[in-house]
Design goal:
Order of helices and strands: EHEEHEHEHHEHEHEHEHEHEHEEHHH
Largest sheet: 6 strands, parallel
CATH superfamily of the largest domain: Glycogen Phosphorylase B
Helix content: 40-55%
Oligomer: single chain
Shape: globular
Length: 380
């Protein structure tokens, strides 16, 4: 089958952008299965090759409802069996979908979290207008909608979309995970000496205080008064719309300057060194479409996770042998923090090893590709 992915921006697997990572690894896995795969992106940045995938970049005009004619010429040359559109509220996707409809080329859509409650609240009136003016045919003519998790599937239904929904989650490629023997277990101690002999909780993701629940994490952490001197919290990730200042102010207001470290984003081997040298991975998000890549990576390194119920996929996270899933509240997160702050080091290691084994079994890109292939076969 010939599959063509279309998205905005450079498809960078080392980006903090989940859409980039998902498109990169999904297209790579499809090519490995034997499909002929293309990825066309609109960007002025230099091309990043994807093994086995024909990648082409196109410069987008300033007016988003105009696209370069060469893009459509190249799609015609490919003559794809299926086009995969990524993200929502994207004018360029509307134009491409209209062109595909006129030529009876089937396409599917992955919202990538764009229909969660928190996402819809941002620029709410603009999105309502966009929906009324442009989206009816966009959704109604899709072959099916690809959801990356149960939460996203529910959001799609709540949005009023009537097309079939196929759940196929983000996954992890064991080949992309460094050998732990080559990672630096003392990375944190070397770079942040204050963490020595402390139990370190790590958050890794964009510093979006509201959506990612960092405010309730900090308020919960502040309540660990009796054991606070033995615990550290590391918040790592890119600033989100200038909110890092507010985050650091909250840390000061709560008196946590000696217990919380805020860093910029970490990529590549440095990111994995950071995860490997922490004790517990924390993801207190209020709203998630699926399992974040950061959680998958932490589990694959062998770190038990403290996560909120916003992350749901089957019954995976209900297994208390690999993680603690708590209510998205100060009380819930505090219970999780207290549990992990009193666990023995041996128990934490055992939980992490069980998590590592389980994540590779249940979340593989091969399974994700098979789910999408079966859906295509059934609908065509």
């Amino acid at each position: 089958m010939k599959i063509l992915h279309f998205l905005l921006g450079r498809c960078n697997p080392n980006s903090a952008n989940g859409v980039d990572k998902a498109a990169y690894y999904l297209s790579k896995a499809q090519a490995e299965k034997g499909h002929t795969v293309y990825l066309f992106s609109l960007t002025y940045k230099s091309l990043i090759p994807i093994p086995g995938v024909n990648v082409q970049n196109f410069k987008s005009p300033k007016f988003p409802f105009r696209l370069p004619s060469r893009l459509f010429e190249e799609i015609s040359k490919v003559s794809p069996d299926l086009v995969h559109l990524h993200s929502v509220f994207i004018p360029q996707n509307i134009i491409v979908s209209r062109w595909l409809i006129s030529r009876k080329i089937p396409y599917i859509i992955t919202p990538h979290g764009g229909l969660t409650r928190s996402a819809l609240k941002k620029s709410r009136f603009v999105k309502l207008l966009f929906h009324k003016l442009f989206e009816r045919n966009f959704w109604n003519n899709a072959l099916y909608i690809h959801a990356i998790g149960e939460s996203e599937s529910n959001c799609i239904l709540d949005y009023g979309i009537k097309k079939p929904v196929v759940i196929a989650p983000h996954a992890i490629d064991p080949r992309e995970i460094p050998d732990r023997e080559l990672l630096d277990k003392k990375y944190l101690e070397k770079n942040y000496p204050v963490t020595k002999n402390k139990r370190v909780f790590l958050f890794l993701g964009r510093l979006d205080m509201s959506t990612k629940g960092l405010d309730i994490l900090l308020e919960s952490f502040a309540k660990l008064r009796e054991s606070l001197k033995n615990n550290m919290l590391i918040l790592t990730g890119p600033d989100w719309r200038g909110k890092r200042t507010s985050l650091e102010k909250l840390i000061k207001d709560l008196g946590l300057q000696d217990n919380v470290i805020v860093t910029g984003p970490k990529f590549g081997i440095e990111k994995f060194n950071l995860i490997h040298s922490a004790d517990i991975f924390v993801h207190p998000s209020r709203h998630e479409a699926a399992i974040p890549f950061s959680v998958l990576e932490a589990l694959s390194i062998g770190k038990p996770c403290l996560i909120t119920t916003s992350i749901s996929f089957k019954n995976f996270f209900e297994n208390k042998d690999i993680c603690r899933q708590v209510d998205t509240s100060i009380k819930g997160i505090l219970e999780g923090l207290e549990y992990f702050s009193t666990c023995s080091k041996e128990d934490i290691i055992i939980m992490g090893e069980m998590a590592r084994k389980k994540i590779f079994l249940e979340f593989s890109w091969e399974n994700t590709v098979n789910s999408l292939d079966i859906a295509f076969q059934k609908k065509c």
